[in-house]
Amino acid sequence: MEAAWVRMLRFAVASTVEGADAALAEPPCWQATVTAQERRRPDLAVLRIRPHEPDPYRAGQFAAVWSPLLPQAWRHYSPASAPAPDG
Questions:
Q1: What value does the mean pLDDT take over residues 61-84?
Q2: Distances 70 to 54, 67, 74 between C-alpha atoms, Å
Q3: Rounded CA separation 51/55 (Å)
Q4: Domain map of the chain by residue range?
Q5: Residue 56 Cα to chain centre, angstroms
Q6: Which of 42 and 69 is assigned the larger pLDDT?
Q7: pTM for this structure?
Q8: b/e per residue, 14-31, with b = 16+ CB within 10 A?
C-alpha cells in the first residue's frame, strides 16, 4: 500500500511540475473585450469576447473572469467553443 501511495504522489508531483513548466511560456492572464452579450435566462448569459492576444483554448477549460466595473468579483465561465478562425 505504501509503495502504491509513493508512486501516486510521484506521478502527481511530476504532473504538476510538467504543467507549471509548460505554463511558463504563457502570460498569467489574457485581456479581452466583450463584443456581445445575450441573456438566455436570468441565470445564464452568453458572452462573445475578442482576446487581445491568442488564447491557447483547450476543450473542457474554465476561465476565471472579472470586469473593471466590479474589481475582484471573479466569475468562472466554461467556454462553449473554440475561437473563431479570425480569433
A1: 80
A2: 25, 5, 9
A3: 7
A4: 2-77
A5: 9
A6: 42
A7: 0.53
A8: eeeeeeeeeeeeeeeeee
pLDDT attached to residue 27:
66
Average pLDDT (48-69) is: 80
Q: Is residue 51 within 8 Å of residue 32, measured between CB atoms?
A: yes
* Grid cell in block for residue 84: 473563431
- Phi-psi domain of 60 (left: phi exceeds 0; alpha: psi -120 through 50; beta: other): left
Tell me which residue of 60, 65, 59, 74 sits closest to 30, measured CA to CA.
Answer: 65
Cα–chain-centroid distance for residue 64? 6
pLDDT of amino acid 43: 86
